[in-house]
Design a protein that fits this description.
By secondary structure, the chain is α/β, with parallel strands linked by helices. It contains 15 helices and 15 strands.
């Protein structure tokens, strides 16, 4: 079996500003179902080092069902309701294990439980994105898992590789690291063929690569995923401008090993996230209403600012948070389109008011922007 060092993966990791790390139950938990505490402590050291270098990190972790079934004495093949019960029993233990690992680094873990609907529904997507943003601003470590206690087959990701890819999409991550039981893709099954060659870089995920993931690499990855699910996750992440690194995770300090050039497979991104997002906001969503603004707000938007309540003159339509709205400038000129951060009736209450008045008017505190600058696409003509 021929292995190579992976300078591309190492260089990419060193340059990253925001990283999502996916940890599977096969490397987090020992055969008896207990957390590998020493290994998790070494991963915490790696993540703390990344954060110390100014990199923001989000963790996607499996393990709740594995821990919960041990607590509940479920040593058989589980039905859906038993998996949900095991997840409920295991979530607390999972969060406690991660928090213990990060206590020496004075880092607070913040758990987020997501379902597929949370990334497919615009309002829930915005809520999730705002929560991630706030946690990262507060220097907490977001720890994501699928909400197995309520998810059914219709609303499940099915494996945490895809969940990690969607988390990378939400937080606009530079790099997705999938820690596996193998150090990436091979030309043949490395467990059976001593001549198998490691593939350090995948420029484009071709049908041949996908076939390889279902063939010689199929056995990689214990649990609900496998190499095929990792390639599928890399396609999702790559379409949103995020590169994926598949690396051996069972060793101590697995991320430090990648940074030092250990063998790994880097799957390059194929998409431009900003362009795709602007096309989605600006042309693929039917607007549910309009917001008319004054001349000062129009100038501010042209300068790259968010739309604040003070610049709102009128609201038309009945729309929800996350819906697309058309922005109208003085003279009935269509300025652009964006995603509303408020319900239409809320905007009517705060139109023309200062940002420091919003909490008193609404009775609760929210970010002041009616439309965030990153959720706004202006016309170019």
């Amino acid at each position: 079996m021929e292995k190579t060092v992976s300078p591309d993966a190492a260089q990419t990791l060193r340059a990253a500003k925001r990283i999502v790390v996916k940890v599977g139950s096969a490397i987090l938990c020992a055969e008896d179902g207990a957390v590998r505490a020493a290994w998790l402590a070494s991963l915490a050291d790696d993540i703390a080092a990344l954060r110390g270098d100014g990199c923001e990190v989000v963790v996607v972790t499996s393990g709740a069902i594995a821990l919960g079934r041990k607590r509940l004495g479920l040593d058989r093949t589980l039905q859906l309701d038993e998996k949900q019960a095991a997840s409920a029993a295991g979530q607390a233990a999972l969060a406690q294990a991660w928090q213990r690992a990060f206590d020496p680094h004075d880092t607070h873990i913040a758990q987020l439980l997501l379902t597929l609907d949370d990334t497919e529904n615009r309002r829930r997507y915005l809520n999730a994105r705002a929560t991630f943003r706030t946690l990262l601003d507060l220097k907490a470590l977001p720890m994501v898992n699928e909400n197995d206690t309520v998810a059914t087959s219709e609303i499940r990701y099915g494996d945490n590789d895809r969940l990690a890819a969607h988390a990378a999409q939400i937080v606009e991550s530079d790099v997705l690291i999938i820690l596996s039981d193998v150090d990436g893709l091979y030309t043949a099954d490395p467990r059976k063929d001593p001549g198998a060659r490691h593939i350090p870089v995948v420029e484009t995920i071709t049908p041949e690569i996908e076939q390889s993931a279902a063939g010689p690499n199929k056995a990689a990855g214990i649990g609900s995923g496998g190499m095929a699910s990792k390639i599928a996750a890399a396609k999702i992440a790559g379409a949103n401008g995020c590169v994926t690194i598949i690396a051996a995770g069972a060793r101590l300090n697995p991320i430090a090993a990648i940074r030092d050039g250990a063998a790994a497979t880097l799957l390059r991104a194929t998409g431009n996230p900003e362009r795709a997002r602007r096309q989605w906001i600006g042309g693929r969503i039917k607007p549910a209403g309009t917001i008319t603004i004054d001349a000062g707000a129009a100038m501010a938007l042209a300068g790259g600012a968010s739309l604040l309540p003070a610049g709102v003159v009128a609201v038309a339509g009945d729309f929800s948070r996350g819906d697309a709205v058309t922005i109208i400038a003085p003279g009935s000129k269509v300025l652009g389109q964006g995603l509303s951060a408020y319900f239409s009736d809320e905007i009517r209450k705060i139109a023309g008011r200062r940002s420091d008045e919003l909490e008193e008017i609404l009775g609760y505190r929210r970010r002041p922007a009616v439309v965030e600058k990153n959720d706004l696409v202006l016309r170019t003509e």
